[in-house]
Design a protein that fits this description.
The complex is a heterodimer of chains A (328) and B (162). By secondary structure, chain A is of the alpha/beta class. Helices cover 40% and strands 21% of the residues of chain A. Chain A folds into two domains: 157 residues, Rossmann fold (3-Layer(aba) Sandwich), CATH 3.40.50; 158 residues, Dihydrodipicolinate Reductase, domain 2 (2-Layer Sandwich), CATH 3.30.360.10. Chain A is built from 13 helices and twelve strands. The longest helix of chain A is centred in the last third of the chain and has 19 residues. The mean pLDDT of chain A is 96. By secondary structure, chain B is an alpha+beta fold. Chain B folds into two domains: 70 residues, ACT domain (Alpha-Beta Plaits, 2-Layer Sandwich); 78 residues, LOR/SDH bifunctional enzyme, conserved domain (Alpha-Beta Plaits). Chain B is built from four helices and eight strands. The chains are: A alpha/beta (328), B alpha+beta (162). Chains A and B meet through strand 7, helix 12, strand 9 and strand 10 of A and strand 5, strand 7 and strand 8 of B. Bound molecules: NADP nicotinamide-adenine-dinucleotide phosphate. The site of NADP nicotinamide-adenine-dinucleotide phosphate (NAP) has 25 residues of chain A, from helix 1.
Chain lengths: 328, 162
C-alpha cells in the first residue's frame, strides 16, 4: 500500500520513521512540507529525505507541490499531518476533499477539517468507497475511536468524559502537587515544550472542546460545532482553589464531557475525587466511556508527542491495509 | 423511628448494628420502659441519618431480627454538594450570595471555607450546600450558576457520576 505524507513535521517524520523501520507492507511514495515536495511511485528513500529535511529544511524540491502529489496516482492513502486551522480547516480540508474525491483513503491527525466538516467528509469517503480515519485527532496514542467503533461495537455509548488536554492536565498537576501558581506552572509547561508560545487554545479549553465536537459527530452523529460546546478554561483556576479541593481528598481537573441524554457538551474545570481513574498525572489523557452492555471503560495514555501520534496514524494505516488489501 | 423490642442484654446492639452496617449515623437514642406493656418490652426512639434509598433494607433487617417497628417518622433526605467559587466574593456582597441560597427555603449554605488572597486578587471559596432532595440541590446549583455569572465568579462543580 502506497502512502503520501503531507506535512513533514513532528508527526509526519514520526510516521515516516516507523514505516522505514518496520516491515508493515507500507511504502512511502510522496512527501510534502510547506515549501517542497517529492514523488517516486516505486518508493522513496526515507533516510535520505529525513537527512535532507534536517540539512535544508525541505523534504524535496520546490517545484513539486502538495497539489501535484494529491492529483497524482502515485499513492493509495493520503496521510494528512499538516498544521491545524480550527477556523477554516484549510489548507488541509481542501487536500482531504481532493484525495477522497479521487478515490484515495485518508488518515489524518488534523483536528480542523474533521471537527468542521465531519459529515461532508464522511459522506464523501463513503461515496468513493474509501476510508477516512482520524484516530490521532483525539487523545493522541489512545485508541479511543478504534475502541468505540470496533472494540465495543454494538454498545450504545451513553456518556463520554475525560481529560482531553495534556497541557492543562500538566499545569493543574503541578499546581496541585507543588503549589505553583497558574503562571508558574504555565511557564514550566512552556519550557518543557508542553505548551505553545501562545497557549490560548489549550488553557481556554478550546482544544479539548474541538475534540468533543469530533466525538459528538463521530460517535453520535450529532452535527455539532465548536459554538455548541460550553467552554470554561483553566486560566482562572487558583492554587488556593485546588488546595481547598485537596483538603477533602479531591482535586481539580479540566474535564470534557458529552452526555447526550442531558444535552450536555462541555469543557470545564471540575472537582473530582483523587481516587477517580480520570485523575492522571502530568500530560496524560484519560477518557471514560459509559456504555450499556460493557459498563464503564477507562482508557489512559499519552495524548501527544511525535511517536505517540504516529502510533495512532500507523494503526489507522494498518487497519485500512487489512480491510482493503493492497491495490497494486 | 420508634421501635419496640425485648428488654434483654444485647438487644440495643441488634438495633444499632444494622444501622451502622448500611453506613448510617445515629443522631440520638431515647429508650424507655413502657409501663403499660409490662416490664419486658422496651420502647426505643432512634433518630439517624442513613444513605439514600437504604430505608427498606434497614426495615427488613429489623424484621428479620424480630424488632417491631412501631412508626417510621418523617423520612427526610439529606443531599450535600460542594462547589468552589473563584472571584471577588467579599467585594460582591458575600452575605447576599449566601442569602440567595438560604432564602429559597429548600436549600441552605452549610459550610464555607475561604482562602484569602493578596489584596485585589480573587479569593477562592469552597461552599457546601445541603438540601432534602436532589432536585432542590440542582435548583440551588442553578441559582449559584446565575449568581456566579452576574458577579463574575468562576464556579467549579463536582464531576457527577450518573
Ligand atoms: N504533535 C503532536 O503531538 C500532535 C498530536 C495530535 C495531533 N497533531 C496534529 O498533527 C498535525 C501535525 O502536527 P505536528 O506536530 O507534526 O506539526 P509541525 O511539527 O508543526 O509540522 C507541520 C508540518 O506541516 C508542514 N506544512 C505547513 N504548512 C503546510 C502546507 N500548507 N502544506 C503542506 N505542508 C505544510 C510544515 O512544513 P515545514 O516543515 O516546511 O514548516 C511541517 O512539516 C497538526 O494538525 C497537529 O494539530 C499533533
Amino acid at each position: 500500500m502506497r502512502i503520501a505524507i503531507i506535512g513533514f513535521g513532528s508527526v509526519g517524520r514520526g510516521v515516516a520513521e516507523v514505516i522505514a523501520a518496520k516491515t508493515t507492507g507500507l511504502i512511502i511514495t510522496a512527501v510534502a512540507d510547506s515549501r517542497s515536495g517529492i514523488i517516486d511511485g516505486s518508493g522513496l528513500d526515507i533516510a535520505a529525505i529525513l537527512r535532507n529535511k534536517q540539512a535544508t529544511g525541505m523534504c524535496g524540491t520546490p517545484d513539486i507541490t502538495v497539489s501535484d502529489i494529491i492529483s497524482s496516482d502515485a499513492y493509495d492513502v493520503l496521510v494528512e499531518v499538516s498544521p491545524t486551522n480550527a477556523e477554516t480547516g484549510e489548507p488541509a480540508l481542501g487536500y482531504i476533499r481532493q484525495a477522497l474525491a479521487g478515490g484515495k483513503h485518508v488518515v489524518t491527525s488534523n483536528k480542523g477539517p474533521v471537527a468542521l466538516k465531519f459529515e461532508e467528509l464522511h459522506a464523501l469517503a463513503a461515496d468513493n468507497n474509501v476510508s477516512l480515519r482520524y484516530e490521532a485527532t483525539v487523545c493522541g496514542a489512545i485508541p479511543l475511536m478504534h475502541t468505540i467503533k470496533h472494540g465495543i461495537a454494538g454498545n450504545e455509548i451513553t456518556r463520554l468524559y475525560g481529560v482531553f488536554n495534556g497541557t492543562c492536565n500538566y499545569i493543574l498537576t503541578r499546581m496541585a502537587e507543588e503549589g505553583l501558581t497558574y503562571q508558574q506552572a504555565l511557564l514550566e509547561a512552556r519550557e518543557l515544550g508542553y505548551a505553545e508560545a501562545d497557549p490560548t487554545y489549550d488553557v481556554q479549553g478550546i482544544d479539548a472542546a474541538i475534540k468533543l465536537v469530533i466525538l459528538a459527530n463521530a460517535v453520535w452523529g450529532m452535527k455539532k460545532s465548536l459554538s455548541d460546546v460550553d467552554i470554561i478554561g483553566i486560566d482562572r483556576v487558583t492554587t488556593a482553589a485546588i488546595a481547598l479541593a485537596e483538603r477533602e481528598d479531591q482535586t481539580i481537573r479540566l474535564i470534557g464531557e458529552i452526555d447526550p441524554a442531558n444535552e450536555i457538551i462541555r469543557v470545564s474545570p471540575s472537582i473530582i475525587p483523587k481516587s477517580h481513574p480520570l485523575v492522571v498525572r502530568d500530560t496524560l489523557n484519560a477518557v471514560t466511556i459509559e456504555t450499556l452492555l460493557a459498563g464503564e471503560i477507562t482508557l489512559i495514555g499519552k495524548g501527544a508527542g511525535s511517536s505517540e501520534t504516529a502510533s495512532a496514524v500507523i494503526a489507522d494505516l494498518l487497519f485500512i491495509r487489512d480491510c482493503y488489501g493492497r491495490r497494486d | 423511628m420508634k421501635l419496640e423490642m425485648k428488654d434483654s442484654p444485647g438487644q440495643l446492639v441488634s438495633v444499632i448494628q444494622p444501622i451502622s452496617d448500611i453506613g448510617g449515623n445515629i443522631l440520638s437514642v431515647i429508650h424507655e420502659r413502657d409501663p403499660e406493656t409490662g416490664g419486658d418490652l422496651l420502647d426505643l426512639q432512634i433518630m439517624c441519618e442513613i444513605p439514600e434509598g437504604s430505608l427498606d433494607a434497614l426495615l427488613s433487617e429489623f424484621r428479620r431480627r424480630e424488632i417491631n417497628v412501631l412508626r417510621v417518622g418523617e423520612e427526610r433526605l439529606l443531599v450535600r454538594r460542594s462547589i468552589i467559587l473563584i472571584g471577588h466574593l467579599i467585594h460582591t456582597n458575600i452575605s447576599d450570595t449566601i442569602d440567595r441560597i438560604d432564602s429559597t427555603g429548600y436549600a441552605e449554605v452549610h459550610e464555607l471555607s475561604m482562602v484569602m488572597p493578596a489584596i485585589n486578587e480573587p479569593s477562592s471559596t469552597r461552599m457546601t450546600i445541603k438540601s432534602d432532595c436532589l432536585k432542590d440541590i440542582n435548583r440551588a446549583l442553578a441559582i449559584l450558576r446565575d449568581v456566579a455569572r452576574d458577579k463574575g465568579f468562576l464556579i467549579i462543580e463536582s464531576l457527577e457520576g450518573n
